[in-house]
């Protein structure tokens, strides 16, 4: 009995190794192991980011002007809708990135993609008419639709807010744990290429979202156009089928979430690659003081906040994001109002310039990082960001490119016939006050009409609803687009270099958390206030407000000349601040371990040369 006990005591019990095969639960067939590699993971997580970008930064932004008209919202209110995607991220990113660092990143990513499916419920509010009460008007007047049943337009704002909130919560792990998982499972030399693929597909999503979204706006909101309607897509009263794009997105995300959940905690061979990179001095070692418990959150955060390189790089990225997020939300509106471009052409133009500007910038940036070995050099990566941000600042002049001016609108920009004075923001006078004109859109009542006479070489002339043909100068949109491509390229060429600065200026086991903290700050002072600020700028230049059932609705007419100046000065201000912070980030950079070793080798070689010269001189004497 004692012998058996001794034998049992000497038996070495080993914990079973974690199963690193691809699959779900106990279902991990050999056939699926061909997918268990960094390439397939990068493709899968990149398509997750692609669909998210297509929806949030593509569909939502191209549809904002349509949502204004459909639900009678102000630019500030639709700016709130665009910004609400980041509220969940601000709350959750810190916790997700910290615990995800020490937990299973794959589960965070997979379940996050499942949550994003709930974002596509705003199609519930896509009916062509509001389900509100009918206004009971006195006398012989007509009736109209009100939003009284749901307390006004805030019912619809809440629906979109909830959808954006779910999307923000579901994609929180995507931009922190996603790049970290890639970086942990490939060699540092190959990491820039994989990250370039990830960010390229991420940025390709909004481009396709704008193009396909613009196409959907050519379709009437209820698919079938009412009989007798002669509205065209370029008419201010036209409402396109904005809700169709969200249907396919939710279905694709269900498939992607299943694929993501099949990956193991880490890919086979990742541990060996990581240990070799740490021996070479390419990767910093773990900070053993931080173990991943709740009590370590504060020390980890304080350690990041004491790192000047991290702080100034984060402030630079956030300053650029504030302007970028705001302008991205309203770029489609700018093109439509400033240059008179139709929604479809607007989507095609924005989608087209996003590809060379953003994807091209990321790919070229990734190539340069690899070509000049910036992945190993923190200081060189920071210097690269400074140079690129200077070109972004120089490109701010794009916002001063003149547009079409302000079209003549009777009662707003030009006086009524027989009057020498403008009526401010009023288009109603004593002569048409009894015509029951709708104040929800520009749809004037005409009197004393006659045939349009032919003039010049034109054989026929016709009148159409909507704005008159824009005045000369509208071809300037080509110069605006060209400059915008340059600006986008200079912004996104730093995508990989920025990540390199963050990943190399902190301890190895703080990298995911550092990305998370940066993302929180970037969202808090960049993505979140950006659309709200630009919405307020648009509203401040409104010359004519729509009225719906006695309430102020969406803006019907903006002063584009004033808006152009305000956007230009805002661009110079925030890109200049970003340039300053990038410079400070570079200024506080210290040499990495690899650079220090190279410097020591160079110095010792120099000392040896000087010693040999001295010996030669002594021998000659």
From TrEMBL:
<feature type="transmembrane region" description="Helical">
    <location>
        <begin position="78"/>
        <end position="99"/>
    </location>
</feature>
<dbReference type="InterPro" id="IPR036259">
    <property type="entry name" value="MFS_trans_sf"/>
</dbReference>
<feature type="transmembrane region" description="Helical">
    <location>
        <begin position="154"/>
        <end position="181"/>
    </location>
</feature>
<feature type="transmembrane region" description="Helical">
    <location>
        <begin position="567"/>
        <end position="589"/>
    </location>
</feature>
<keyword id="KW-1133">Transmembrane helix</keyword>
<feature type="region of interest" description="Disordered">
    <location>
        <begin position="597"/>
        <end position="621"/>
    </location>
</feature>
<feature type="transmembrane region" description="Helical">
    <location>
        <begin position="381"/>
        <end position="401"/>
    </location>
</feature>
<feature type="transmembrane region" description="Helical">
    <location>
        <begin position="193"/>
        <end position="221"/>
    </location>
</feature>
<keyword id="KW-0472">Membrane</keyword>
<feature type="transmembrane region" description="Helical">
    <location>
        <begin position="477"/>
        <end position="498"/>
    </location>
</feature>
<dbReference type="Pfam" id="PF03137">
    <property type="entry name" value="OATP"/>
</dbReference>
<feature type="transmembrane region" description="Helical">
    <location>
        <begin position="344"/>
        <end position="369"/>
    </location>
</feature>
<feature type="compositionally biased region" description="Basic and acidic residues">
    <location>
        <begin position="612"/>
        <end position="621"/>
    </location>
</feature>
<feature type="transmembrane region" description="Helical">
    <location>
        <begin position="40"/>
        <end position="66"/>
    </location>
</feature>
<keyword id="KW-1015">Disulfide bond</keyword>
<dbReference type="InterPro" id="IPR004156">
    <property type="entry name" value="OATP"/>
</dbReference>
<dbReference type="GO" id="GO:0055085">
    <property type="term" value="P:transmembrane transport"/>
</dbReference>
<protein>
    <submittedName>
        <fullName>Solute carrier organic anion transporter family member 4A1</fullName>
    </submittedName>
</protein>
<feature type="transmembrane region" description="Helical">
    <location>
        <begin position="519"/>
        <end position="538"/>
    </location>
</feature>
<keyword id="KW-0812">Transmembrane</keyword>
<dbReference type="GO" id="GO:0016020">
    <property type="term" value="C:membrane"/>
</dbReference>
<feature type="transmembrane region" description="Helical">
    <location>
        <begin position="310"/>
        <end position="332"/>
    </location>
</feature>
<feature type="transmembrane region" description="Helical">
    <location>
        <begin position="241"/>
        <end position="263"/>
    </location>
</feature>
């Amino acid at each position: 009995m004692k012998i058996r006990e001794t034998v049992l005591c000497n038996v070495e019990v080993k914990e079973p190794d974690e199963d690193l095969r691809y699959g779900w639960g106990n279902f991990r067939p050999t056939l699926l192991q061909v997918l268990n590699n960094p390439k397939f993971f990068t493709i899968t997580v990149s398509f997750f980011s692609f669909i998210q970008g297509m929806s949030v930064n593509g569909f939502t932004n191209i549809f904002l002007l349509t949502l204004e008209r459909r639900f009678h919202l102000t630019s500030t209110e639709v700016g709130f809708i665009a910004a609400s995607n980041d509220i969940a991220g601000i709350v959750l990113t810190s916790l997700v990135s910290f615990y995800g660092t020490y937990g299973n990143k794959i589960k965070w990513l997979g379940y996050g993609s499942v949550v994003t499916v709930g974002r596509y419920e705003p199609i519930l509010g896509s009916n062509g008419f509001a389900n509100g009460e009918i206004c009971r008007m006195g006398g012989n007047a007509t009736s109209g639709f009100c939003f009284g049943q749901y307390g006004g337009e805030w019912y619809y704002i809440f629906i979109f807010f909830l959808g954006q909130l779910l999307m923000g919560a579901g994609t929180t792990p995507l931009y922190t744990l996603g790049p970290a998982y890639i970086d942990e499972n490939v060699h540092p030399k190959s990491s820039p290429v994989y990250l370039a693929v990830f960010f390229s597909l991420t940025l390709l999503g909004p481009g396709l979202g704008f193009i396909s979204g613009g196409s959907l706006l050519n379709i009437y909101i209820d698919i079938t156009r009412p009989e007798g309607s002669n509205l065209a897509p370029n008419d201010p009263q036209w409402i396109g089928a904005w809700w169709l794009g969200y249907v396919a997105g939710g279905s694709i995300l269900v498939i992607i979430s299943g694929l993501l959940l099949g990956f193991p905690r880490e890919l086979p061979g990742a541990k060996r690659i990581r240990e070799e990179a740490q021996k070479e001095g390419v990767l910093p070692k773990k900070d053993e003081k931080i173990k991943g418990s709740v009590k370590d959150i504060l020390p980890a955060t304080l350690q990041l906040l004491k790192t000047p390189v991290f702080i100034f790089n984060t402030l630079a990225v956030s300053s650029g994001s504030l302007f970028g997020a705001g302008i991205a939300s309203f770029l489609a509106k700018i093109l439509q109002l400033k240059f008179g471009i139709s929604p479809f052409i607007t989507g095609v133009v924005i989608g087209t310039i996003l590809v060379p500007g953003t994807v091209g910038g990321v790919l070229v940036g990734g190539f340069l990082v690899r070509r000049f070995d910036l992945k190993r050099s923190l200081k060189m990566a920071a210097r690269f960001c400074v140079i690129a941000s200077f070109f972004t600042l120089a490109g701010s002049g794009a916002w001063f490119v003149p547009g079409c001016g302000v079209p003549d609108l009777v009662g707003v920009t030009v006086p009524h016939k027989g009057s020498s004075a403008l009526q401010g923001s009023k288009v109603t006078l004593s002569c048409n006050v009894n015509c029951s004109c709708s104040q929800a859109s520009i749809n004037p009542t005409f009197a004393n009409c006659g045939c349009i006479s032919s003039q010049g070489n034109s054989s026929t002339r016709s009148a159409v609803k909507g704005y008159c043909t824009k005045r000369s100068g509208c071809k300037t949109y080509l110069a605006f687009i060209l400059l915008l491509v340059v600006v986008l390229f200079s912004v996104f060429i730093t995508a990989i270099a920025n990540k390199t600065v963050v990943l190399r200026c902190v301890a190895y086991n703080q990298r995911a958390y550092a990305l998370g903290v940066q993302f929180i700050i970037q969202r808090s002072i960049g993505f979140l206030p950006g659309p709200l600020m630009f919405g307020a700028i648009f509203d401040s230049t409104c010359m004519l407000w729509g009225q719906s059932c006695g309430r102020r609705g969406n803006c019907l007419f903006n002063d584009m000349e004033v808006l152009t100046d305000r956007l230009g000065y805002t661009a110079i201000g925030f890109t200049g601040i970003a340039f300053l912070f990038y410079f400070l980030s570079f200024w506080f950079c210290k040499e990495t371990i690899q650079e220090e070793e190279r410097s020591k080798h160079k110095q010792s070689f120099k000392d040896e040369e000087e010693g040999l010269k001295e010996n030669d001189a002594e021998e000659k004497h």
